[in-house]
C-alpha cells in the first residue's frame, strides 16, 4: 500500500514478490502449501506475484531418522528390523508434510518406498488454517465483490485438500483407484501399495526404479524414445482428466518417472482431484465449442463449471474469450501452448468476477506442469499436436452416448455437414494410434493387456459405423441433414464420401462389421418398430 501511495509500486514488484515467497517459507508447511496454491490462482493474485510463487518449493530440511523410524514402528506395531532387512540412512526426498526412505522387505526381498508423516504437524496445520479462516472473514466483502464468493470458501477448499494429505490411508486408496483405472494399460506404471504395512502416518509402496523427468539427458542415454514417451504421458494425462475424472493433482518432475521400457510412472498420490461425470462432459463441450468457435457457449461453459456465479451476465466475457482464442489458435498448432493461453486467461480472470474452483486450479496446474516437462525433454514439443489426436480418437471411437452427441456437434456446423472436419478427425485419430503403437512398452509383456490395447495398432471404427447407421435410421433430423450434406449446392458429394472411405478402408474389417450387423439385426428391427409406433402415437 505504501508503494502505491508513493508511486513506486511497479518498480518494486519483483522485490516485494521475493519478500512474500521468503516469508511463506519461513512461516512453515501450511504457508508453503498456501503459496503453491496461490501460484495457480490468477483469480486471487496478480500474475507477477504468481510467477515468483511458482519458484516456491516444498523441499525442506528432513527431520531426524530416529524420529521417523520411531513413527514407523509405532504405526506398524513391530520393530524396524522385523519388517525391513535394509533401510536407507538418508531420506530420498523431504517435503513440507513428510519424507521418503528406500527399504527392502525382509519377507520378500522387494524394494519399497516408505513415506513418513512429519511429527506433530497436525496441530500446526489446524492452527494455521484457523488463522487463515479468521483473516479471510475480514476479506469477505472484497472477495464477494471481486470473485463472487466469500474468502472463507476459498480457505475451506484449500484446507480440505491439505487435511486430506495428512492421512496416508486416503493416499493408499487413491493409489488403488489409479491402479484400477490403468489396469491393462501397458504404457502406464502405478506403484503397488502394501496396505498391511501402511497406516495414517506411514505409507509403504513399491519402489519405482525409473529416471526422473528432471534429467532429460539420462532419459536419452537410456535409449528411451522421447517422442513416444511424451505421447504416452500426454495421453495418460488426458485419460485421467476426460475419461476417469480422477487425476494426479501434483505431477511435477519429481513425481513422474520414465521407465526404461518406455512407460510413464507416477508417484505421490496425496494430492488428487475428482471431476464429476457432468464436469467431464462440460469440458468436452468446451473443446467442441472451441473447435466450432462458439464463444457464447464457451462463456456459458464457465458458468456451468462454477467459474462464474449463476445468473452472471456473460456478454462482456465473450469478446475477451474470442480475442484469447483467436490470438492463440490463429498461430496454428505449431505455436499453440497452454502457458501463453493461460497468461492471457489470467488477465481475464483478474479483471472479471471469475473464481477458479480448487479442482480446476489443480487441472490448470497439472496441464501447465506436464507441458513444462514436455518442453524440458523436447524444447520444440507441441502439446496440442498430441492432445488433439487423442481427443479426435475419443470422439470417433468412444461408444459413450454423450461423446457420440459431441461428435455430431463437431461434424455439423450451422446445419451443414463438415466433410473436411471429418477427414481431419480421422487423420488425427490415426496419428494418435500410430504414435501409441510405436511405443516399446506396448510390445513388452508387463502383465495382462486389455482388449483395447491389443488392437491399438488400428483405428477401430466398427462401433462408430454401427451407431452412425442406427442414428441415420432412427433420427429423422440427422437423416435429413446427411442427405442435404450429400446433395449440397445441387450436386452429389460422392467425391467427399470416397475420400473419407479411402482414409478408413485399411482400418475397417468389412466381414466383421457385416457379422455384427447381422447379429444386431433383431435389436435394430425392434428399436425401429418402437420408434415408428412412438411417432404414430405422438401424431395422434
Low-confidence stretches: none
Distance between the termini: 73 Å
* Radius of gyration, taken over Cα atoms and rounded to an integer in Å: 26 Å
Say how many strands there are. Answer: 13
Instruction: Tell me the structural class.
Output: alpha+beta
Total of DSSP H or I helical runs spanning 4+ residues: 26
Looking at the structure, what is the overall shape? globular
Describe this structure in words.
It is a single chain. The protein has 540 residues and is α+β, with helices and mostly antiparallel strands. 60% of the residues lie in helices and 9% in strands. The protein has 26 helices and 13 strands. Strands 1, 2, 3, 4 and 6 form a 5-stranded antiparallel sheet that branches. The chain has a 4-stranded mixed sheet with strand order 5-10-9-7. The model has no long low-confidence stretch (mean pLDDT 79).
Offer a quick outline of the entry.
The protein is of the alpha+beta class and 540 residues long. The chain has helices at residues 2-6, 13-27, 29-38, 47-53, 65-76, 80-83, 121-137, 140-147, 151-164, 168-181, 216-221, 226-244, 277-291, 295-305, 317-329, 338-351, 358-377, 383-397, 401-411, 419-437, 440-443, 451-454, 462-474, 476-486, 494-504, 510-539; strands at 84-87, 93-94, 98-105, 111-117, 188-189, 202-206, 211-212, 246-248, 256-258, 264-266, 272-274, 412-413, 416-417.
